[in-house]
Amino acid sequence: MVTKKRQIGTVVSDTGKLIICDPDYLSDWIDNKVESKREYKDTKTDNIYVYGKNFNKYDEILFDGKTVNELIQEKRLLRIPYKETGEFSNKAITQSIINKGFSQCNFQDGRKGLALAVATLIGDGEFPVFAEFQEEQVCKIWIDFTINSDKQTENE
Q1: What is the pLDDT of residues 105-144, one digit of tens each?
Q2: In what order do the strands lie in the sheet with 102-106?
């Protein structure tokens, strides 16, 4: 069977993440505010340090004369992952993407497959979408996050 590959469009991300979803399920979206509650555990004392509460910048001194970045780098502070819920919401998707780079969203009864969200490789941008065709039907799609279309010129 002969397959053809070609660019079929572009997709823009202003948040560094994208969702793949059946449009009929968009009404299941839960509208809530993203919380950026980044928590770190001190591996020696078990104390918890929270961004925005215990420190506001990663280059500020937290304790022992060291910055938060230095403490993370030497593994004295370990990031506490967000609890993943599978909820179809910006908050849950963002938290899951911070944990592992993608998010599987579930139906309210717990079944998987409502949507899938992914982080883009380079954050915000315009990315080309490609498809592979068999007998004029799309059989595969992919988004190339290594090419930021809005940074390219017409002559490239």
Answers
A1: 999 999 999 999 999 988 889 999 999 999 889 999 999 9
A2: 17-21, 112-119, 102-106
Q: Which residues contact 4 (CB under 8 A, 6 or more apart)?
A: 132, 133
Closest CA to 40 of 27, 52, 25, 28: 52
Nearest to 54 by CA among 62, 46, 66: 62
| Helical residues (DSSP H) of the chain, grouped into ranges | 68-73, 90-100
Record the pTM: 0.72
CB contact at 8 A, 26 and 35: no
- CB neighbours of 103 closer than 8 A, spacing ≥ 6? 84, 92, 93, 96, 97, 116, 117, 118
DSSP string, 97-135: HHHHSEEEEE-TTS-EEEEEEEE-SSSSEEEEEEEEEET
Task: Answer whether 15's CB lies under 8 Å from 139's CB.
Answer: no
